[in-house]
Design goal:
This protein is α/β, with parallel strands linked by helices. It is built from eleven helices and ten strands. The chain has two domains: 195 residues, 2-enoyl-CoA Hydratase, Chain A, domain 1; 47 residues, Lyase 2-enoyl-coa Hydratase, Chain  A, domain 2, CATH 1.10.12. Helix 1 links the parallel strand 2 and strand 3. Helix 5 crosses helix 6. It is globular. The structure holds coenzyme A.
Length: 260
Amino acid sequence: MSTDNILYEVKDRLAVMTVNRPGKLNALDSRTVKEILQTAGQAAADDSVGALIITGAGDKAFVAGADISELARQTLVEGQATSDRGQAAFSALENMDKPVIAAINGFALGGGLELALACHLRVAAANAVMGLPELGLGIIPGYGGTQRLARLVGRGHALEMILTARKVKADEAARMGLVNRVVPEGEALAGAREMAGKILAQGPLAVAFALRAVRHGLEMSLAAGQAYEASLFGMVSATDDMREGMTAFLEKRKPDFTGR
Ligand code: COA
């Protein structure tokens, strides 16, 4: 179900969430952050959804950041609550057992880049521009950006982007591992759909287990992560999907997974 600032539709197991404030370059006010959390919960709970794409309305911006007119009025206590709520919404996306793909169709700045960073995969249009300009506003990234950017592209690239507020275009973002794929201008959503289609053809339980293995494993030592991987491998070996995947290979046909 769509809400005031989020358009949401599901078709053929693929959900698309569109941040819809094009007049403000899809800037995230507190209502929109709340609606992202609500929509993430909806997608996570819906068994008919196998993957989620997030994009921005219009052809100019994915999301141009947190809404500066709202942030400008905040006190210390309100600022912390804003950060907590943004982090909770974005963590809900990151913690989903279904792949979440950002289709970056233009500016992804501040909270917009942090939203994209919370997604599992990122497809950027060639004209996309990414950056964390917060320090120039006298604040720091507060929706997970200082944590996720450094984990994704390494401390050096992350600190340069954060401390100098330098924006990067899609090609450079791809070179540093910030985005997975660059597609022509206007094709971010199509590129994300294509990527989602490939994932939706895999065993759905295996997709969920792989997401869990990587997500939790990154918080563990290598030994603990491998032990966790082995236990998930054991569990996945007891599924109908595993039997179907292997039988289909041996019978030289496409698998028909049921997610059981
Ligand atoms: N918060 C609130 N409003 C925003 C916004 C934000 N983060 N980003 C853009 N907007 C609004 C503008 O105020 C403007 O509204 P108006 O028409 O009512 O004045 C509208 O969106 C269009 O933006 P505009 O700045 O006129 O477009 P532009 O093409 O000249 O510049 C950007 C585009 C992205 C470079 C510029 O909007 C910008 O720098 N935005 C802020 C980015 C930022 O610092 N984000 C981090 C926030 S923590």
